[in-house]
Amino acid sequence: MIGRCLAGVLLGFPLAALILRLLLRALPGGGTDWLIPVLILFFPLWITLMIGAYAFRNATRAWLTFGGANVVALLVVWLTAHVA
After folding, report:
1. CA 61 to CA 3: how far, in whole Å?
2. Which of 24, 33, 35, 45: disulfide with 16, CB 3.0–4.6 Å?
């Protein structure tokens, strides 16, 4: 139980930030007009990811899934910054 909780807390935080960064990048003008509303969405998204960690059967799956999602999201953020 504690392993899933830690996966949600420790890996959910950067995943929420990366998801919202992608959302800001998709908005017109880089999302500068939407920065405050998106920042307000950060905490509920992080809480949702923490709750979602308990949907996994065991801690290993939670860590692997959230870790993989972080790697994919970071790769997409990096590619959108350097390719476009």
Report:
1. 10
2. 45
Answering whether pTM is above 0.85, one says: yes
Which residue is listed with tokens 């919202």? 20
Sign (positive or negative) of CA dihedral 22, 28, 31, 34: negative
- Let me know: does 48 contact 58? Beta carbons within 8 Å: no
Task: Give the pair of three-digit tokens for residue 81.
Answer: 């910054």
Q: How many whole angstroms separate alpha carbon 70 and alpha carbon 27?
A: 21
Q: What are the structure tokens assigned to 84, written together?
A: 């476009």
pLDDT digits (tens, 9 = 90+) for 17-31: 999 999 999 998 888
The distance between the two most distant Cα atoms of the chain, rounded to a whole number of Å, is: 42
Sign of CA dihedral 9, 11, 17, 19: negative
AA identity, residue 7: A
Q: Which pLDDT score, from 0 to 100, does residue 84 have?
A: 61
